[in-house]
Every structure is written in C-alpha cells, then in structure tokens.
Amino acid sequence: MSHIVAIASGKGGVGKTWLAISLSHALARRGRRVLLFDGDLGLANVDVQLGLGPGPDLAGALVGRGALAQAVRAVEACGFDVLPGRSGSGQLARIDGAVLDRMLAEQEAARSRDRRAMVGTGDRSAKIRTYNFPQNRVTYHRINLSLHQLDDVLEGELDPLVEALRRQSREERAGDA
Ligand SMILES: Nc1ncnc2c1ncn2[C@@H]1O[C@H](COP(=O)(O)OP(=O)(O)OP(=O)(O)O)[C@@H](O)[C@H]1O
Ligand SMILES: [Mg+2]
Questions:
Q1: Are residues 36 and 84 in contact, defined by beta-carbon separation less than 8 angstroms?
Q2: For all residues of the chain together, what is the average pLDDT?
C-alpha cells in the first residue's frame, strides 16, 4: 500500500527540506520505496541540497518537455527517488489551470493502466494460492514460494512470506533500473 506524507509549514527556513530528505533516506533504509516530490513551488531546492546536477524537473514536465516519469531521478547514494521542482524560478506557483488539468488526466490514465495490470484478467486458471493440508504446505504461485509450515501461516506467522515479497520487490526494482 502506498502512503503520502506531506511536509509543510507557514514559516521559511525552519528545516522542511532537510526533514523531507532525511525522512526519505530513513524510510529507504528501512526498505520502503520512496519518491520525494519537491512541491515547493517558489523555491524548490531538494535537488540542490542533494547535490544533483541540472536535469529534467517538474516545471519542465508541466510545460510539456517530457513526461513526468522521465523527470524522476534516482539518488543512488540514499536509495530513494526524487522528482525535483525548479530551483528559484517561482514559475510553478503560476501554473495555468488547463495545464494542471492535463497533468491530472495523464496521471489518472497512468493509474488506471497500472490498476488493470495489477488486477489481472480473472482467468480461473490463474492460481494465486494453494493450501495443501496433508503436506502442511502453502504455495504462493505469483511469487513461486512454497512454505512447509501451513499451520504456522494459519496462526499468522507471515514473516517468511513478507520476506519473500520484499526480496521479489527488490529484484523487480533492480530489474527496472
Ligand atoms: N535539524 C537541523 N539541524 C541543523 N541545521 C538544520 C536542521 N534542519 C535544517 N537545518 C539548516 O537550516 C537551513 C534551512 O533548512 P531547510 O532548507 O531544510 O529549511 P526549509 O524550511 O526547507 O527552508 P525554505 O522555507 O527556504 O524552503 C539549512 O541551512 C539547513 O541545513
Ligand atoms: Mg525548503
């Protein structure tokens, strides 16, 4: 499940950017997949504080220079991704309503594409899980994992499953990179 954490304050220079970067780093170290979105419309500087060089950013995507996803950059040293704003231009604070509508429509289309891919076709032959009581085995077909502790799993001992899911997620991310 994904979560959104917003960091904001009515006062300048109190450490919002520092907290956003540190929190992203801490969550990434705990194995979470993090995208740090710099929504400081006036003076975005997450990229500057992270020492990233110039490159695609949110402002560019808003004026049609490339897709939003292409502006996402991996911060290799910290293990999370960043969608940089545009340092100091103030341009993002004056975005045209029509441009915002277009961006929202693009995001919605991408989300429903993802949802379709995740939900699958409902094919009856698509096996998800098999419980085999004589063998005390449970198999999770989507990640090709068999645990020979069905009784433990039914008691709520899900750590081996969670660990396997984490491993698969890490492998998929490595494959995407
Ligand atoms: N916990 C902290 N301890 C010491 N220095 C800090 C801490 N948090 C932030 N700073 C320093 O304070 C300054 C302002 O921090 P930061 O840029 O994160 O604030 P901000 O709220 O994002 O500012 P702005 O409103 O300009 O976006 C920076 O020089 C930063 O290094
Ligand atoms: Mg800031």
A1: no
A2: 87
